[in-house]
Design brief:
Blueprint (H helix, E strand, L loop, with lengths): L4 H9 L5 E5 L6 H10 L8 H4 L3 H9 E4 L1 H5 L1 E4 L9 E4 L3 H12 L3 H11 L4 E5 L5 E9 L2 E2 L7 H23 L17 E5 L7 H17 L5 E6 L2 H10 L11 E6 L5 E5 L4 H4 L2 H14 L6 H17 L13 H13 L12 H17 L9
Parallel strand pairs: 1-9, 1-10, 2-8, 8-9
Antiparallel strand pairs: 3-4, 4-6, 5-6, 6-7, 10-11
Helix pairs in contact: 1-2, 7-8, 8-9, 9-10, 12-13, 12-15, 13-14, 13-15
């Protein structure tokens, strides 16, 4: 039986791991999980007395920094509809953003925000903060002290900018908390910080910048010596793999920090430990492999399983650089087996075909799946 997201959040909180890396397909509930985790530190008000408690947001930010889709919702555009000239990205004032912006201003971090943003966007595209850090305008620097007027940036660039604001805050938190003696820290604002929850910051990045962001984030995590704990969720196999490798999560028992979040039809969830990167744990070719294995184990092989088998051979051949998937078939029966798969997976004579293959055909599915697993580098999980 599955769990609620609140129960999974409690499990994450109760795990003594520096890093917990979670993969989830889109729509599974990553962002809702980040909200449930935050609520463990500052529960929603249930009555008039709790609703009037102004300390709740402060308690949350003292214990946890988080980035998710709701973080991006705190930024919105003033499009200057009357003059169509002074586009500004404004920051929704509330207890969290007021604290964040005041802290970044006091620490003199506007230059670092610009630096990180230009790394992921365009080195000529420059943000300009207002004096109170409450709004941002953007221009293109053209050299010779010339710049364009205020421009409205794309949605992807906007997401990159918001991440740059958060990353600058996170960088400061890690750096300041690495000072062992609280009295010697530049600020005491992070003294109670325990968790960082990052949900999918890479949706608007190309592969090169995605890798760069993952490497930078992993480096920052590795540099943290204060006991700060990090939870990262993503739908991107590439982002997951880079973090998995950079953080060396497959070594020295760290692998238990890698998980797959699953959402069941009854509305419940589960968080399953995964051993290895996404290629070993939850990529589509593994889904095909597991589907075929289950059909063989249950003796329920049907004709469409030949299509899945062919698809798995095609994907494996493409990954390994073979020009034809049939080259992966056993040498001594390659031509015969190729014809069997071609005919069974592409047959258009639906009125002559029966759903269930003959026992000999079922045996071919098992033979070819075993051949692929045993001869072409499929990772054999041991001790699990």
């Amino acid at each position: 039986m599955g769990k609620t997201l609140r129960e999974i959040a409690q499990d994450l909180k109760g795990t003594n791991k520096k890093v917990q890396l979670i993969y989830a397909f889109n729509g599974t509930g990553k962002t809702r999980l980040s909200r449930e985790f935050k609520q463990l530190f500052a529960p929603k008000a249930d009555g008039p007395e709790e609703a009037g408690n102004a300390d709740q947001p402060e308690l949350s930010r003292n214990k946890i920094l988080y980035y998710n889709a709701f973080t991006e919702d705190l930024f919105y555009w003033d499009n200057d509809l009357a003059r169509d000239a002074e586009y500004k990205l404004k920051i929704q004032p509330n207890s969290y953003t007021n604290w964040l912006l005041e802290l970044l201003k006091d620490l003199g971090q506007d230059g670092n925000i610009v630096k990180y943003f230009q790394r992921y966007a365009n080195d000529k595209l420059t943000p300009h903060f207002s004096d109170d850090f409450g709004e941002v305008s953007f221009s293109l620097e053209r050299g010779n002290n010339e710049r364009s007027g205020h421009i409205k940036i794309s949605k992807g660039e906007e997401s990159n900018f918001i991440w740059s604001v958060f990353y600058t805050l996170l960088d400061q938190a890690v750096t300041i908390l690495n000072v062992a003696e609280p009295e010697e820290r530049e600020t005491r604002q992070f003294d109670q910080l325990e968790y960082v929850f990052v949900d999918d910051p890479v949706s608007s990045l190309d592969e090169n910048h995605l890798i760069e962001l993952a490497v930078n984030l992993a480096g920052l995590i590795k540099s943290s010596t204060s006991g700060l704990k990090f939870i990262i969720t993503t739908h991107s196999p590439l982002f997951y793999n880079v973090l998995h490798n950079e953080l060396e999560l497959s070594k020295k028992g760290k692998k238990e920090g890698c998980c797959l979040l699953e959402h069941f039809e009854d509305g419940s969830f589960d968080l399953n430990v995964k051993y290895g990167d996404s290629n070993r744990s939850f990529s589509y070719h593994l889904y095909l492999k597991q589907t075929l294995e289950q059909a063989i184990a249950d003796n329920k092989v049907e004709r469409y399983h030949f299509t899945l088998l062919r698809n798995l051979y095609e994907k494996t051949a493409s990954f390994l650089g073979y020009p034809k998937w049939s080259e992966l078939l056993p040498d001594d029966r390659q031509l015969y087996l190729n014809r069997i798969i071609q005919f069974t997976s592409h047959s258009t004579l639906s009125n002559e075909a029966v759903a269930e293959p003959a026992p000999a055909e079922k045996a071919i599915v098992k033979l070819l799946l075993d051949h692929l697993k045993n001869n072409y580098g499929f990772w054999q999980q041991e001790g699990v």
